[in-house]
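Dear U.,

Please find below the material for section 3 of the report. The protein was modelled together with zinc ion; I have listed the sequence and SMILES used, followed by the predicted complex structure.
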Amino acid sequence: MRTICVKGGRRQEIAVAEDGKLVEYLCDTQSGSAEGICLGRVERVVTGMKAAFVDIGQEKNGFLPLEENTLTGSFAKLLSGDRVLVQIKKAAQGVKGAFLTRDISLCGEYVLFMPMNRHVGVSSRIEDEAIRNGLKQLGREIAQERFGLVLRSSAASADPEEIRRETDMLAEQWHNVEAAAPTAHAPSLIYQPRTLLDSVVDDYRFRGIDAAVTDDPAVARSLEGVCPVRLTQEDPMVSMDLIRHRDKALNRHVWLDSGGTLVIDRCEAMTVIDVNTAKFTGKKNLEETILRLNLEACGEIARQLRLRNLSGIILLDMIDMKDEAHRAQVLERLKECLASDRIKTVVHGFTSLGLIEMTRKKSRQPLADDWTEICPRCHATGRVIKEEHHG
Ligand SMILES: [Zn+2]
């Protein structure tokens, strides 16, 4: 039984639960900025207002300022009847039509791709001067004055190759928009960015989605053909107690039903997960007890990898098993448990020290980076200088 919960808003939150257990909790920071690109037709130019009213196929004409900064000169003069490529910056609301711009930007997870200007910038949310300079340099290298680029805050912890890949993908999308515009009917919507929810639904669709719960009527409509949808008044993350389970996944420790624990440490180069037992009583069937606990841990490890969205190299320190057949059984179980993950993990096997080595593909940032920030007092060491050393 798989349920998708969506909390609407500028930062849309998406949770996935399987058999009542939370397995993903995502935050779509782009949901507010990912707006469509339309080929519009100028209805009327009002020089006094320095604006044009553009038919974009909506009930009300959109409002387009005539003068916008582009850093590469100005946009073409507009006359009524002209076809013009515009992006919806603010959706129509009440009596007001949509607010439009010709300074188009395509928003990715790490970058904002701006084909109409050549500005390279870094999100003001990144404060560290050295990181800012490094990202700016990277942005200049990628853009090479061919387009503008803003590195978003998530770029700070991203692999430069990922940032390049994403920029290439956005450039490709822009290329498609440009290619479609000359022959498109005006007014028409040319490009609707894929949202995070779109990709989550696509990824799970063939595995089966049994139900959806949301407080957002637009989301409910978009999921109608996918599964039975329940539209609620209250925040589904609160009413379904998902926030508490999300927050538990921000801790290092995870309790297993049998009394054992997992300790999950995210390090710079890899993530290490340690499996610990509760005290064993007696030597009888010790090997069997260890096997049972390791097998139980596999399910929880797979769930935690998904929920915490950990990626890269992952090392598992299971409880030592002497029996080769037991080890093989644990690897097998681990692969089974990882099968419901929509992100690919490769289990490489045991290292010579008896650790299980695996790699999980990177996608988006870890859960902890969505909801926590580095402690300014200990700088993530979790330790502070002893009082006695403070003079
Ligand atoms: Zn601290």
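For the text of the report, you could mention the following: The chain has nine helices and 21 strands.

Regards,
Y.
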